[in-house]
Amino acid sequence: MNKITLLVHCKDRSNIIATVTNFIAKNEGNIVYLDQHVDRDQNVFFMRLEAEFFHDSFSTESFKEDFKTNLAEVFEMKWRIYSSHKKPKMALFISKYDHCLYDLLGRYNSGELNLEIPFIISNHLDLKPIADSFKIPFYHVPVTKDTKPEAEKAQLELLEKFEIDFIVLARYMQIISPKLIEKYQNKIINIHHSFLPAFVGAKPYHSAFKRGVKIIGATSHYVTEELDAGPIIDQGVTRVSHTHSIEDLIAKGRDLEKIVLANAVKLHTNRKVMVYNNKTVIFS
Amino acid sequence: MNKITLLVHCKDRSNIIATVTNFIAKNEGNIVYLDQHVDRDQNVFFMRLEAEFFHDSFSTESFKEDFKTNLAEVFEMKWRIYSSHKKPKMALFISKYDHCLYDLLGRYNSGELNLEIPFIISNHLDLKPIADSFKIPFYHVPVTKDTKPEAEKAQLELLEKFEIDFIVLARYMQIISPKLIEKYQNKIINIHHSFLPAFVGAKPYHSAFKRGVKIIGATSHYVTEELDAGPIIDQGVTRVSHTHSIEDLIAKGRDLEKIVLANAVKLHTNRKVMVYNNKTVIFS
Amino acid sequence: MNKITLLVHCKDRSNIIATVTNFIAKNEGNIVYLDQHVDRDQNVFFMRLEAEFFHDSFSTESFKEDFKTNLAEVFEMKWRIYSSHKKPKMALFISKYDHCLYDLLGRYNSGELNLEIPFIISNHLDLKPIADSFKIPFYHVPVTKDTKPEAEKAQLELLEKFEIDFIVLARYMQIISPKLIEKYQNKIINIHHSFLPAFVGAKPYHSAFKRGVKIIGATSHYVTEELDAGPIIDQGVTRVSHTHSIEDLIAKGRDLEKIVLANAVKLHTNRKVMVYNNKTVIFS
Amino acid sequence: MNKITLLVHCKDRSNIIATVTNFIAKNEGNIVYLDQHVDRDQNVFFMRLEAEFFHDSFSTESFKEDFKTNLAEVFEMKWRIYSSHKKPKMALFISKYDHCLYDLLGRYNSGELNLEIPFIISNHLDLKPIADSFKIPFYHVPVTKDTKPEAEKAQLELLEKFEIDFIVLARYMQIISPKLIEKYQNKIINIHHSFLPAFVGAKPYHSAFKRGVKIIGATSHYVTEELDAGPIIDQGVTRVSHTHSIEDLIAKGRDLEKIVLANAVKLHTNRKVMVYNNKTVIFS
Predict the structure, then answer these.
(1) Closest alpha carbon within chain C to D17
(2) Tell me: domain D89-282, CATH 3.40.190.10, correct?
(3) What number does CATH give the domain A2-83?
(4) ipTM surpasses 0.90
(5) Contact A118, A162 (CB under 8 A)
(6) Residue D70 and residue D64: Cα distance in Å, rounded?
(7) What is the pLDDT of residues B86-125, one digit of tens each?
């Protein structure tokens, strides 16, 4: 059996759903999931569809070709088709904080995540033992002012060599270079330790403490050139009070960061995220 | 312009979506919303669809006829088609608590609710001034052991006379008679002041206090013959602690009850709820 | 029986609790509640205490005198003592939105709020019928560019005449004058329709929609000269998604605003809020 | 410097707070935290107090003696005094699920938990590699119908040998023997994968799925002889919908279980929990 996931967006107009579902039916596919959304402000149509094909002669490649010619070009669609046979490959970038790393690797180990982790990159050596205990190759790529270009080159080589599909910054404490951002557009997931857009930049828990907020948050988003301003994938919050010190906020925040980042990774790898106008459509 | 909402469920099989969307397209309709769900355990397919028809000759009645003959009977569907022209009519049953009443009437007044309220029934006179101030007819139908049959008769007459579509029990403190339940199946919405199935029956806040739970809840559900066991439409929760007395739980619970009940009413009137196997499918 | 609530803050040092509790004991009082907090960064001690006095000769006034001389001056305390006999008087400022008004008056009516509402002020006439139906005096004080000074004068006269203790802006759509803010420092409660400090200023739901956040919020705070920057009393949040339009955010936000504002009013009238360094200590 | 934490409960009466705080002052202690609660139904007074003693001659043991003679016996208090010098020792009981194990060990490793873990007991060998990678002794104590008495004996020997203070059942899939429960009263923390008292017993996620609830939960509680009926320490909840399969509920529940269990462990080790009448008082 072949199963594909189709993501589509285009200018809204009549009959798109009927045309696409017909196309699937003509190809002897069975639709097992369909969700759609229309942004009325922008007049844009979004659709996510999963279909199963049981005949032996089915080829994802020729299906893609047909779809492109007969539908995508006619409706001027932006589209992607994924085969369920191929697990996405994730590169993990880390620094010194271990909570998101433990959390993701724990989930990975227990089979909760539909992905492969060919390697971990860190600008520090501190967390190598954790990578080792989970038997995942660990590459130490230090980043200093002077070594930035070399570091970027080393990162890119690894990403290409292992055919990485997307990058997760699990509290990686370095700015990602514009070249990487451009190459992996909407494919670099960051976890920011605040309820964005409140408290952008460094030390958000300190700012939250100073402002005396009663709720703190964490935000996972795709990395864009503007810092902490990329499309938001997921957010989580928790209550705090005057009794909590900055250290308490940081500890409570760790739990948010873990869950919100893991959620974003799952949504991304299950092809449930579409990006448009610096915002996300998240299918259920 | 005519707009219809179609709700369908049937045994799952290939091509249902394509067939239905084609049928809409052939009738020159434009699909503006489609959501679907498959219960894999039960092998049941659910769909909700909104379509707009712009040609003058469109008639909801003949569309229904066509749909019935060409699709519903072929796929052995359970189905409903609603025209957006007709607002559902809601009867409010109340007793002595006013918080849900104020809340619903406040929302009604501000245009938040897509419905009509032809009348309010109460077994007590206490809240008549509120109904009066909102200018909604108020009927006093007392219920005692002896007058049960008469009360039921009076209720049924009012419901029929005003062609009521659904009933909301806004903390109505009487058991609904089996006859009413049968006549308005999945059309009587109750708000229960606990996180069901914890604390069924009377005095749930007292039970919650006694058990020392750290979270209390409220549950809106359709009324079935078994008490507090009908299909759940929505639930809400809030944290409590040892510092809260039973009175505090009751006060905190009121806020939950208001919001959860209003939510259920909105979901119901927007035709977003389907019931199957004593559970609900809630479309977004 | 006399019951007092004591709020105190001062530089932290040894033995404050023992000294104060001793003082209560010597005055034959029984402490029924005591909570305290130390801000370690600022080295400030906060305490809230409720005590009951059963002897006939007790006088709140002479107790205050004693407390001032024997404790407050020795420890250089900022302090307030409230008698439970006197309900705080609240002035409601409104404009055209009715949801917070209905909510507060509904709670007031049902006895949930420990306060009096001598009058409602509005710069529009739209909501007068609601004030009338709850039998609360309504004053129409229009505010235009030219009439600002007169309006402020009229407001101040009413506030003084009725010996108002604190003001609640229930979606009042005018900037409060610096004179009022100074006169009612930490006594004017506003509800802002965003999760502050995200989306300060006008149209926060539009900004939230544009940014594509997955959670929206509401914030109640004391009004200070800097807009939306005063000490936060309470915050609430709720999840949203790409399926929600700006109108949906506004509707969902209304429920947050009602509950967060009512919460702030209850905390304030129960003397549970202390302000320090533009932040609040909220006792439980 | 010596720091002690005092927990007290007794029949409520006048002057307890003043007497205790005076006692601390006379011993040249400085109170850094005091919280108290009165259960008005039961007329019981609860207090938690932290005090620091800076003089060299201070001895926790003689302080305890004094407290017992001069206060505890006079007021007929149930009381405990802990020195901050001694970290509580926790035994981890596990079976085959690894999520709570990874979570607790990750927190332990990063210094978030104020405790020691002398060993892990499991009735299966599956998770031994995880214990090994964290360098914590792992004891395999299989439990079958026939070996129950021996297993219990082996467990008790280990608990005694390592002077264990409390036990955490991190999804341990065996019933704890009455002997252990009696010996470690209010010292065995379990995590139950439902919002108790809804769905007691086995397979709660299956029951939640069947009932069609819109919110699922997890509950940490002290183990008592009656299954899933002990005093509740903490609870957490998360929203679910018809789109979630039982497997989805289980996956979402894992995140709740981790956080709720970790919370309970932190509250217990920070001496913030008092048990009375099968309920908990949780100090902040």
Answers:
(1) C21
(2) no
(3) 3.30.70.260
(4) yes
(5) yes
(6) 10
(7) 999 999 999 999 999 999 999 999 899 999 999 999 999 9
